[in-house]
Amino acid sequence: MAARSSWPLLATGIGLLLAGCASTTPDPQTVLRQADQALGASQLKTLQFSGRGSGATFGQAWQPEIGWPQLNYSVLTRTLDYDKGALREEFGRSRAEEKGGGGIPLLGQGEQRATGFVLGEHAWNTTPTGPVAAPVTVDARIHDLWTTPHGAIKAAQRHGATTGTRSDGGQSYSTFSYRVPGRLDATAWVDAQGQITRIDSRQPHPVMGDTEVTTLYSDYRAFGAIRFPMRIRQSQGGHPVFDLQVQDVQPNAAVDIALPDNVRTATERVLSEQVAPGVWFLFGGSHNSVAIEMSNHVVLVEAPLYEGRTAAVFAEVRKLLPTKPIRTVINSHHHFDHAGGLRAAAAEGAALVTSQAAKPYFERVFAKPQQIRPDRLAQSGRSPEILGVTTRRQFVDGDLRFEVHEIQGSVHAQGFLMVYLPKEKLLIEADAYTPAAPNSGPPPVPNANHVNLVQNIERLGLQVERILPLHGRVVPIGELYAGIGRARP
C-alpha cells in the first residue's frame, strides 16, 4: 500500500486546544475584526477556488483502523455562496493505491467525475438522469462551507464566538470558537497577521459519532482585497483526507445554485419484492437491504447510509411482518455507506453481526459521544451488542438455514461478508458485484472485484441461482459470469 503522509501538527489534534493556556482572553470582536480585515471576509459574498493535489476516500479503508485509501485529484473546484449557505463541488479523482472502497474506478482504470451541492438543509448530486438527493452528505458539505477561512469568520459573526489563545512551535495564536447549531463546532487559530492558519472542528457522523477534523491553511496570497490560502491540508477521523494546491481563486464569482424541486420534496423510499418464501428484497434508493423471516423475528441484511434510510427500511419491514421484530442486523462490511444505519439499528435493540475484523472498530466508534446532534442511539442510552464472524457463521431456525461467509482476497475490504441461502439458492452481497445495465456487454477488462466474487463462490461450492446485490437489481448468476467473460459452469 502507498506510504501514509506524516503530519506532526495534525497528529497533535484537538489536544493542543486543551494544552494551550492563556494569560489574557482577547475580546471576540477584536479577534474577528482582525481576521476580517486581514482576509477581507466582509467584502466577500461568494468565492470560487480550484486546484489539484492528493486526498483520500473518507470511510472507505480496506481494513478497519487504517488510513483512508489515497487518491489523486486532477481537479477540484468549490464554489461557495455564503449569503445563501450554498456550496457546489466538482472534482475528478483517481486511485493512488489498489486497496479500499468508494465509487472510484479500480487502480489504473480511469477517474471518477462528480458534482455535488448543498443549499440550506438540502444536499444533492448530479447524475446522467438529473439531480438526486444526497441527505447523507449534508453535514460534510455544510462543514466544508463554514470551515473555510472566510466562512469561519462569517459563521462566528452570525452565531457568536468565544476566544482564547494557543501556542505551537513557539508561536502564539489568538483563537475564536463558534458553533453552527446541530452541524458543527470549531476553533480557528489566527496568527499575528490576522490569517487563519488552522481550524479544529467536529461534525456529527452516522458511524463515528462526533468526528474530529483538522484543517491547515498556508501560503496566503492577495486577490484584490481578499486573501486566500494556496495550500489546504485536512485530516478527518485521525487520517489525512486532503492536500490541495490551489491554482485559481475568484472572489465574488457569479454563483447560481438553485434547489431542484425533486430534491426539496425527496423522502426515503423503500420498496419491497418477495424473492422467495420469507425473503424480501428492499430497494428504492442507492443502497438495498434484504429481510429474512425467521419463526419469531426478522434478520435484516444491511442497514446502510444513515439513520433516515435505516428508519425507512425498518418501517417497511414492520409493514411486511408486523408481528415480528428485527432482532439481528448483518453488516456486509465496515465502509461507512454500508454501516451508516447500524447505530440506528442498535437503538432499536437489534444485535449487530459484522466481521471479526470490524467488531473492535465498531465497539470503539459507537462508544464515542454524539453530542452536536444526538442521534437515536445517543438518545436511547443503549450499548450495542456486536457479534463478529470469522470465515463463516450459520443461522438455523427450523427448516430455514442461511450462512454468512467471508469473501477472501478482495481488494475492496478485509472482513467482507456475504450471505448465502442454500435452499433458495440466493446470494446477498455488496460491492463485490454491482450489475450493469440490462443487455450491457462485458467490459474490456474484467472487474477484479467481480472475478474475486466468482472465485469465492467456487471456492465455497455455493449453488447460486440469483444474486441479491446491495446496489442495483436482482440478477441471475449468469450475468456475473458473463461480465467476466466466462460461461457459467
C-alpha end-to-end distance = 35 Å
Q: What name is given to the CATH topology of the largest domain? A: outer membrane lipoprotein receptor (LolB), chain A
Tell me how many strands there are.
26
CATH class category of the largest domain: Mainly Beta
Average of the residue pLDDT scores: 94
The CATH architecture of the largest domain is Clam
Q: What gross morphology would you assign? A: globular
Helical fraction equals 10-25%
**Number of helical runs?**
13
Biggest sheet details: 13 strands, antiparallel
Say which CATH homologous superfamily of the largest domain is assigned: Lipoprotein localisation LolA/LolB/LppX
- Strand order in space, largest sheet: 6-5-4-3-2-1-13-12-11-10-9-8-7
Low-confidence stretches: 1-23
Radius of gyration: 24 Å
Question: In short, what is this structure?
Answer:
With 489 residues, the protein is α+β, with helices and mostly antiparallel strands. The protein has helices at residues 8-12, 15-19, 28-39, 138-146, 149-159, 261-264, 307-320, 336-339, 342-347, 359-366, 376-380, 448-460, 477-483, and strands at 46-56, 70-81, 86-95, 112-119, 122-127, 130-133, 162-168, 171-180, 184-190, 196-203, 211-223, 226-236, 239-251, 271-276, 279-283, 289-293, 298-301, 326-330, 351-355, 386-389, 392-397, 400-407, 416-421, 426-429, 466-469, 475-476.
